Amino acid sequence: MTGTTDSPAEPVIVLEQLVKFFGRFAALRDISDRFAAGRLYVVLGDNGAGKSTLLRVVAGLMEPSQGSVTLLGTRKLREVAHRVGYMGHAPLLYDELSGMENLRYFAGLYGLHNDSVGSNAMQMVGLDPELLRRVGQYSQGMRQRLSLARAVLHDPDLILLDEPFSNVDVHSARAMAAVLGHVRDNGKTIVVVTHQAALIEGVADDFVHMSAGQIVRREAVLRRAVTTNSGAEAVR
Amino acid sequence: MTTLSVTRATLHKDLRMEWRSKDAINSMLFFALLVVVIFSFAFNPTAEESRSIAGGLVWVAFLFAAVVALNQTWARELRNQVLDAYRVSPAPPNALFVAKALGNFLFVVVLEVLMTPLFVVFYNLRSVGPVWQLVVVALLGTWALVVNGTFFAALSIRTRSREIMLPLLLFPISIPAVLAMVDATTSILTGEASPDFWIKMLAVYDLVFTAVCLLLFESVLNAE
């Protein structure tokens, strides 16, 4: 890791020599890093760089082959599951249920049985809690927003988002980014894996670049790769 | 959040989804109906003959129909990868298993309630032994099928040909239970022998396999 953005805050995520193999292929290669509380991190990289795998390992959906993940001060991820929100690449929602029915069920998994939890989360992402339409009939953008609502409905301290802006129109994506900025301002830590860094650039604190299963660079200001007249790639 | 509240919420959610889609119950009914009709064409048994073959016939229909429902159970959780949302939550893994098993139990019981009158009519069935014992065998036998079925369906969800895998895993391990169900049912229908031994065997089978499934389910849920 190079170019670390230092923060005085306590680390929320500590990765130590993290390795993840799929058969003989190393998806994550010896990652050691720290992510501080109250910041919004954007993880960038090409397809196959290991971004989603890293997020799934941190979320506890995959066991690392080697190394360890310390989340919110513990290596027993199940103990802090109620303090973590995860939004996957797929929507993680039941098509046969309405938005509120989905959120009511998922809130119940966190011991929250008040309907206001779900309706507040839906309103936060700009969806109408009264909408009776089933999720299977939602547009892709609505599904993404509902998926974000599902990830944050239990007010987690750490929010892990995998491609939250995919298939979302620019206007909705910027609205979602503003919501994430607001959540971060309330002291939450957010890690966003995305290919669309420009959409969240305005609210992000750190950009984490991954390549070939490693974190290769961290920076506070996004530097974009551009192609020069000679065809060579440069960073500005 | 307790195991009971999550079990209840998951069961409620599954029943609501089944009520809307009717995926499992329709395919189970269709399959069981086919068995009843085709076998009634194939045989023309007397009431006496019916009593001796009905035990096997009834449970073949219910066993194969149950497999159809069992395959549907986890397919819902795989669509949109919803299972991941459960796995990252603090909800107890066994609550999911118990809810799924109870849901399947209810679906198969509904099937049995709907199909039993047809079996009686098509095969001219009259029980010589007490009917309440048939109810006990049906409940214990159904639980034996669904508890293992739910577990092995979960085990095979990440395999490519899970529809084939489930019966391959489920049927061999269900042999003692199927044997007990068929023999107990035949004993009650014919009244020639006491079904007590087979009923006890079913009860023990249910206890043992429910315990084993509960012990192992968390590993199955979190398998990559």
Keywords for this structure?
heterodimer; A: about 240 residues; three-stranded antiparallel beta sheet; 6 helices; about 25% helix; B: about 220 residues; mainly alpha; globular
Strand order of the largest sheet of chain A: 5-6-7-3-8-9
SS content category of chain B: mainly alpha
Largest β sheet strand count, sense and barrel closure of chain A: 6 strands, mixed
Succession of helices and strands of chain A: EEEHEEHHHEHEHEEEE
How many strands of chain B?
Answer: 0
Q: Could you tell me which chain pair has the largest interface and how many residues each side has? A: A-B, 30 and 24 residues
Uncertain regions of chain A: pLDDT < 50 for 5+ in a row? Answer: 1-7, 231-236
Envelope shape of chain B: globular
**Count of helices of chain A?**
6
Instruction: Bin the helical content of chain B.
Output: over 70%
**What is the H/E string of chain B?**
HHHHHHHH
Residue share in β-strands of chain B: under 5%
Structural notes for this entry:
- Chain A is of the alpha/beta class.
- Chain A has one domain: P-loop containing nucleotide triphosphate hydrolases (Rossmann fold, 3-Layer(aba) Sandwich).
- Helix content of chain A is 27%, strand content 29%.
- Chain A is built from six helices and eleven strands.
- Chain A has helices at 51-59, 99-109, 115-124, 140-152, 170-185, 197-200; strands spanning 11-22, 25-36, 40-45, 66-71, 84-87, 158-162, 189-193, 206-211, 214-219, 225-227, 233-235.
- Chain A has a six-stranded mixed sheet, sandwiched between helices. Chain A has a three-stranded antiparallel sheet with strand order 2-1-4, covered by helices on one side. A two-stranded antiparallel ribbon of chain A has the order 10-11.
- In chain A, α5 (170-185) links the parallel β6 (158-162) and β7 (189-193).
- In chain A, α2 (99-109) packs across α3 (115-124).
- The longest helix of chain A has 16 residues, at 170-185.
- The model of chain A is unreliable at 1-7 and 231-236 (pLDDT under 50).
- Chain B has 224 residues and is mainly α.
- Chain B has one domain (3-221).
- In chain B, α6 packs antiparallel against α7.
- The longest helix of chain B is centred in the first third of the chain and has 32 residues, at 47-78.
- Chain B is globular.
- In chain B, 45% of the residues are buried.
- The chains are: A alpha/beta (236), B mainly alpha (224).
- The A-B interface holds A 59-63, 78, 81-82, 84, 86, 88-97, 101, 105-106, 108-111, 113, 134, 150 and B 1, 5-6, 9-10, 13, 16-17, 20-21, 76, 79-82, 84-91, 224.
